[in-house]
Amino acid sequence: MDFVLRGTLHGTSCDELDQKLVTEFGLSHEDAELARDRSLGGLVRAATGNPRNQPDRSKDPMAWESFERGRRAPSLVARIYPRLG
């Protein structure tokens, strides 16, 4: 999740992020896409400001962690998704 958020902040494309997740973490391409999706999806949920949008920690830990980060640091959401922040 940190890898995805840092890469996104540095302007790394989705395709490049996915490829790096495959090569650096040994994920399948499908799992890399899912990891990116869940990590960024948690931030989108945090941007709503609605605590009911918090992902279930046990079912979706990556989305939960990024939601919590976005909730604690709204500037993170604004830097990645300027229209939402």
Description:
- It is a single chain.
- With 85 residues, the protein is mostly helical.
- Helix content is 68%, strand content 0%.
- The protein has 5 helices and no strands.
- It has helices at residues 2-9, 14-25, 29-47, 61-72, 74-80.
- Helix 3 (29-47) packs parallel to helix 4 (61-72), helix 3 (29-47) crosses helix 5 (74-80) and helix 4 packs across helix 5.
- The longest helix has 19 residues, at 29-47.
- It is globular, with a radius of gyration of 12 Å.
- The two termini are 19 Å apart.
- The mean pLDDT is 96.
Task: State the main characteristics.
85 residues; mainly alpha; 5 helices; 68% helix
Brief account:
By secondary structure, this protein is mainly alpha-helical.
Structure summary, number of beta strands: 0
The backbone outline, from C-alpha atoms, is: globular
| Helix/strand structural class | mainly alpha
Q: What is the CA-CA span between the terminal residues? A: 19 Å
The poorly predicted ranges are none
Radius of gyration: 12 Å
Biggest sheet record: none
Helix content: 55-70%
- What average pLDDT do the residues reach? 96
* Count, helices: 5
H/E topology pattern: HHHHH
Query: Which percent band covers the strand fraction?
Result: under 5%
